[in-house]
Amino acid sequence: xxxxxxxxxxxxxxxxxxxxxxxxxxxxxxxxxxxxxxxxxxxxxxxxxxxxxxxxxxxxxxxxxxxxxxxxxxxxxxxxxxxxxxxxxxxxxxxxxxxxxxxxxxxxxxxxxxxxxxxxxxxxxxxxxxxxxxxxxxxxxxxxxxxxxxxxxxxxxxxxxxxxxxxxxxxxxxxxxxxxxxxxxxxxxxxxxxxxxxxxxxxxxxxxxxxxxxxxxxxxxxxxxxxxxxxxxxxxxxxxxxxxxxxxxxxxxxxxxxxxxxxxxxxxxxxxxxxxxxxxxxxxxxxxxxxxxxxxxxxxxxxxxxxxxxxxxxxxxxxx
Amino acid sequence: xxxxxxxxxxxxxxxxxxxxxxxxxxxxxxxxxxxxxxxxxxxxxxxxxxxxxxxxxxxxxxxxxxxxxxxxxxxxxxxxxxxxxxxxxxxxxxxxxxxxxxxxxxxxxxxxxxxxxxxxxxxxxxxxxxxxxxxxxxxxxxxxxxxxxxxxxxxxxxxxxxxxxxxxxxxxxxxxxxxxxxxxxxxxxxxxxxxxxxxxxxxxxxxxxxxxxxxxxxxxxxxxxxxxxxxxxxxxxxxxxxxxxxxxxxxxxxxxxx
Lengths: 320, 258
Hints:
The structure holds two protein chains of two kinds.
Chain A: E1 5-10, E2 12-13, E3 16-17, H1 19-29, E4 34-40, H2 44-52, E5 57-61, H3 68-81, E6 88-92, H4 95-108, E7 112-116, E8 118-122, E9 125-132, E10 137-143, E11 149-153, E12 169-173, E13 185-191, E14 204-208, H5 218-227, E15 231-234, H6 236-240, E16 261-265, H7 271-277, E17 282-287, E18 300-303, H8 306-318
Parallel strand pairs in A: 1-4, 1-6, 4-5, 5-12, 6-11, 7-11, 14-15, 14-16, 16-17, 17-18
Antiparallel strand pairs in A: 2-3, 8-9, 9-10
Helix pairs in contact in A: 3-4, 5-8
Chain B: E1 3-6, E2 9-11, E3 32-34, H1 36-52, E4 57-62, H2 69-77, E5 81-85, H3 95-108, E6 114-118, H4 129-137, E7 141-151, E8 154-160, E9 164-171, E10 174-178, H5 190-196, E11 201-204, H6 206-209, H7 215-218, E12 221-228, E13 236-239, H8 245-254
Parallel strand pairs in B: 1-4, 1-6, 4-5, 5-11, 6-10, 7-10
Antiparallel strand pairs in B: 2-3, 7-8, 8-9
Helix pairs in contact in B: 2-5, 3-4
């Protein structure tokens, strides 16, 4: 027994598995069993990359206009009913990952553990570790029911490392009749274009928060990010206020970033935000309030007005 | 049109959370408040019912100690009634059990044209319960909706994705989870607060709903360890004197970023 048959749901973006998915395949390999990967969409396009990270098989679900969550969950259930018996199914903590996991959870009568950052085998079960209270406490939870165990992981929990395997074999899995649950249909797909490095892959991230005062001042964040060849980010407060798109959000419900340098401008450091950036190698914070929690984790803290500090910093960098 | 909103009553996030030493669950004995994430769903429901020209907004919630403080806030905003599931047996319930309980509470209200939840709670943030409720009830769902309207009895929503968003249509009845910021929640008026005091809250137990097993007994998980994470130490904090930008430049140069 033990954990010998592992499934990973991989999120595919722009025709390639996301790094968050490849890190799960890497981690799945360490259990020493077989690793199969599920993708929503074209399996052949990603079989090479997934094989290189240790997947032996790719289950590809062509979901058409249906939502990926209910489609993949139903296909997984049908495959399990057909005789496959995964011990552990790993999901990225992404939109699709959570939807697939939630639907499957009910279909299989199995609970879920989410927001995990680590996992280990404990006999025939597994234990997953989740940070709570903004990351200052780590809770380890062991599954007590039968397999398969369903767990979702935060991005950057593991390091993706290729194992040099050959392309994974692709098996197409059709979507069973979804009944009423399949009546939601995708009518249009919109991709938000971004220039410069991706937020969760950039070496430098410059984020702005409510302290910027008004939407127009976010331009300073973009200028600074560009000068440092980095990516602009944002706190949830200004995303909720509609200043920048959701794709800019750093935090618990946004992106988790671990750049070499993170510059927080006018961000007080709510738990929600800190969870998403405290893994950065170096943190610079500029904030008016010297009591702001962000100063508790900053390597360099400037107690000052972003409207005064940022223009001077930008000018200094432009003259270099 | 009738809409049911799933709301959670949580400890005030302004106070640091703590774990109960004996049960390892989040302490919830103090006064609970309406999760701010849920205020968007309540507002959305009120607006959709208004636009439909009739119907009402109902609430379902699961909370210990017959807690209604958060429900009263949502009732003061304009919801008509609530079902509260409060039962000591529910302590330790996992996300799946929570979804079954809320689904049963929704059925107790006779279902609705639309069920709304937040994408995740601000204290537990599992982020799967809305989609689990949809599956328990056999409903279609649109999760992570950031724009919602109903046209000719069909739901239209923009659903957040990793790369942007999808436009989705869905017939009713359906379930949606809405992101923060989807609408601007109203503040309860004085009149609303007074009216909320006499609005009906139907309090039930898990047994009343016919859901068993629940709590620790029904949870497919148990907490095996709790540890403190390595703390990140604070560095140098300096007051801006008009020249501190130079400190940042030096710091960045030291890291060879510039």
